[in-house]
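Hi V.,

Quick status before I head out on leave. The structure for the redesign project is tokenized and pasted below; the design run finished overnight.
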């Protein structure tokens, strides 16, 4: 597991980094919020230990920026700010766990393992099917390395088709994925978006990536 510790206190940063490595993980120590944003530390790691009172860019701002882009990497807040309002603000910003300083190193390591177990079944942030590459963090599609702009609806449709690559995805599944499980509208509305999506990804192809399975729905293939 690749862990990032974002912490401006050099004593804590070194101690936590050493303990994480001794526990068998890789660890990167980042000393301020600006460096964390510049290196995209949350996206680049499997788990992050994040201080809130950071120089240049505060920890909550680092966390909110990542979550606003859809980055789902688990984050444990490690901070001296231990009031209930502080904790609520941390969780509302997207923290997965919250540990107040001073802390026991064994407890932090236990929380790292627990959060990793709890979140390890989250969907991957990158999907690939043949030349199609979907980045869920920044909601970008590339086809053979070429960027293609999609609407949010087109992106959601393609995401579900790629997750179920080679399997039939019904119109009802697509509608619920795009508009929620309480969708009660006609399922044929999805056909308009499918056709627009095909127009963007099927140029210069003899056969569409998205195959219509008559009477059932759609399936994604790349052969």
């Amino acid at each position: 597991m690749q862990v990032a510790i974002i912490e401006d206190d050099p004593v804590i940063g070194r101690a936590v980094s050493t303990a994480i490595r001794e526990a068998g993980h890789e660890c990167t120590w980042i000393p301020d919020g600006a460096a964390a944003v510049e290196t995209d530390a949350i996206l680049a790691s499997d788990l992050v230990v994040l201080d809130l009172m950071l120089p240049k860019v505060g920890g909550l701002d680092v966390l909110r920026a990542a979550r606003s882009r859809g980055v789902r990497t688990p984050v444990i807040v490690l901070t001296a700010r231990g009031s209930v309002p502080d904790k609520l603000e941390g969780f509302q910003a997207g923290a997965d766990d919250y540990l107040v300083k001073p802390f026991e190193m064994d407890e932090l390591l236990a929380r790292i393992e627990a959060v990793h177990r709890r979140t390890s079944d989250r969907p991957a942030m990158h999907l690939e099917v043949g030349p199609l590459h979907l980045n869920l963090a920044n909601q970008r599609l590339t086809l053979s390395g070429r960027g293609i702009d999609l609407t949010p609806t087109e992106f959601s449709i393609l995401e579900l088709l790629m997750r179920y690559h080679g399997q039939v995805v019904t119109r009802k599944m697509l509608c619920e994925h795009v508009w929620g499980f309480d969708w009660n509208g006609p399922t044929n509305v999805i056909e308009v978006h499918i056709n627009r999506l095909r127009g963007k990804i099927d140029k210069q192809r003899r056969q569409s990536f998205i195959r219509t399975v008559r009477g059932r729905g759609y399936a994604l293939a790349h052969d």
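Above is the designed sequence. The longest strand covers residues 2-6.

G. will cover questions while I'm gone.

Best,
W.
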